[in-house]
Design brief:
about 500 residues, alpha+beta, Endonuclease, Chain A, 20 helices, 14 strands
Length: about 500
Amino acid sequence: MFAGKLDFIMKLTDTSNSALGRDLGFDPSYISRMRSGKRGLPRDRFFLEPAAAYFARRLQERPLGKSAAAEAVCPGREWPEAENEAEKLLLSWLGQDERQDMERVDRLLNGLAAARLLWPEAKMPTQREAPSGAAFYYGTEGKREAVLRLLNDYRAADAPTELLVYSDEKSDWLADESYARSWMEAALRLIERGVRIRIIHPLAWGWRELMDGLRKWLPLYLTGEVETWYYPKPRDGVFHRTLFVAVGHSALASSSVGEGDGLNLLVSDPAAVAALAREFQDYLSLCAPLIRVYKPENRRDVWKMLAEFEAAPHSRIIAQRLPLGCTLPEEVTAAFGRRAGPELAHFLRDAAGHLEAHLASGLTVTELLRLPPPEDVRRGLVHQPMSEYMGFDLRYSPEALKAHLGQVTALLRRRDNYRVVLTDRIPEGTMLYAKEDLGCFLVRIAAPTTVFYCTEKRLTAAFWSYLQHNANLGQSRELVIRYLEEYMEKL
């Protein structure tokens, strides 16, 4: 989003608010408000065009910053040598439509809340005779046919185990909605047979494409049987590769230059399949996790990650139904601990200590809350966030929630850098928790409860900016305190 982009490029070029304001004729306080997200992108071009020229010039003076700029502004490509070309890139990047970006994240959250894991009904395919040596397929339609044949034949094999997927060729072969549905259904049927899927996403995909891909493939991710990775360094964007490896069975390989179509080879020779699997694994060893997906059976891993996340000294924003567990008063923490075990109480007390230390150091903590109807609390229908996922049945009594909200109002009065926003803009049934420049948790609350954890900086920045945008639409501190006090009376 614009605020995050402006802040990133100013840090990268070591530009102060006063220096940029002096060069562009803007007050430094106005620059500061744009960096923080309190002011949006100016409507006219009197800021964007000179700002793009300024940053292009600064990058020419700082060769070491060019690779980082390329990764953010034109992933998969080298930073242009010509200053005027760099200026055009920066102008386009800084001026992209923020409203559409917000809507993109909204669609993902709504899709996550509404997604259903429905296994496709289909009879087992009859295994066809494997191609002798290699079968050749041409163009987009050929690639589509070859991929579906590989997936269906692998499902009919005796003991399918793992599917390896990578493609940075032009994506129109997979973009067709009808074909994407067929591909996903075939992949779901493989998962039903016990196959685990590993996907390496190309850096050439921007965060928007990654976000849209995540939304489209939610049924795959909800299975918990898909690993996603990405190669974190830029590539030249000229030579492209596609690999689909059905381990121990067959493989599809193709290469292309630029926007061209290459030859697609479907092979079943064991030595060839093993060689292509090694090629994939060699590339995977250079990659980093894109999004980790955790089902309830992985709760121990999530406990550990959450503990590390809570301890990390970064500003945070969280959107969920109820306040953070680390703001619980001690008596409620102790009661939850008696019902769920000492491990939970220890976690909550540690998190409370980290919260207090972070606030004391000047870091900001913002909670976007969508409080449940008071009658649901009185009927015992409201759970402590994520407690069911963690294996506990912790339901708030009216007294416990009243005590918790009382602690929140006290914190609001005591700490200026702690803030609460009351909103219905974040879809119910999801939790989004981000720490600036660190990572984010995205949780689907309804069954199948699924936790997504991401540290990839473009997606993290997108989620952070989305939360920050919604936080900036919030109410005054006095109005929030008054609402919480009235809500507690209704309990």
